[in-house]
Specification:
The chain has 191 residues and is mainly β. It has three helices and 13 strands; from the N terminus they run αααβββββββββββββ. It has a four-stranded antiparallel sheet with strand order 1-2-3-4, with no helix packed on it. Strands 5-6-7-8 form a four-stranded antiparallel sheet, with no helix packed on it. Helix 1 runs antiparallel to helix 2. It is globular.
């Protein structure tokens, strides 16, 4: 709120005072961002000739991933070191999702295949077929299941350990390209 406004208006002294008054228990990632923002140059990451379709940051802030299409319309995911922007791995896919806990990245391409990758090594750990062109993948908040949906693929949940269809959630039977699950994991939406 107020500290963000002051940082945007370059009123750093006032922003510092407001941030200093914030109780320790309320100092989340936003507080740390506002605290350092006036003193850091923004990081600009070149994506080359790739049209960026998805962008995500890992829950721990260590990794940044972009997904899009190259000039030949092939899906491409770039996994980067978030603080430096250095490219770590190039993976197939045009959509992506970070596992909230556990160090995995899910990517998917038009052929309906979801691949799981180890963030540290960039190696594929497993894959499964959904049966249609995907427009969204996401992990449940606890990281124990993956949802996928798209053209010809109604929202479906796969158990992370077995990669079999799960039954904890029901979001609908119509194909969707937009999915969301509440942070408490008790409800979801699609559109």
């Amino acid at each position: 709120g107020l500290a963000k406004r002051d940082v945007e208006r370059n009123n750093i002294g006032s922003a510092e005072e407001l941030l200093h008054e914030c109780p320790d228990a309320l100092r989340g990632w936003e507080w740390h961002l506002l605290k350092r923002q006036p003193y850091e140059a923004p990081l600009v990451v070149s994506t080359g000739k790739v049209w960026v379709y998805h962008l995500a940051c890992s829950a721990d802030g260590r990794y940044l991933a972009t997904a899009g299409f190259d000039t030949s319309i092939q899906g491409e995911v770039k996994l980067r070191d978030a603080p430096t922007g250095k490219e770590l791995h190039t993976l197939p896919g045009h959509i992506l999702a970070f596992q909230p806990v556990g160090g995995q990245l899910a990517t998917a391409c038009g052929e309906g295949k979801v691949r799981l990758w180890d963030l540290k090594t960039g190696k594929e750990t497993r894959q499964f077929q959904t049966g249609g062109q995907l427009g969204q993948v996401l992990f449940t908040p606890d990281g124990n299941a993956i949802f996928a949906s798209g053209v010809g693929v109604p929202p479906a949940e796969w158990d992370f350990d077995t990669l079999k269809l799960g039954t904890r959630y029901y979001i609908g039977t119509y194909q969707h390209s937009a999915l969301a699950i509440a942070p408490d994991g008790k409800s979801g939406a699609s559109g």
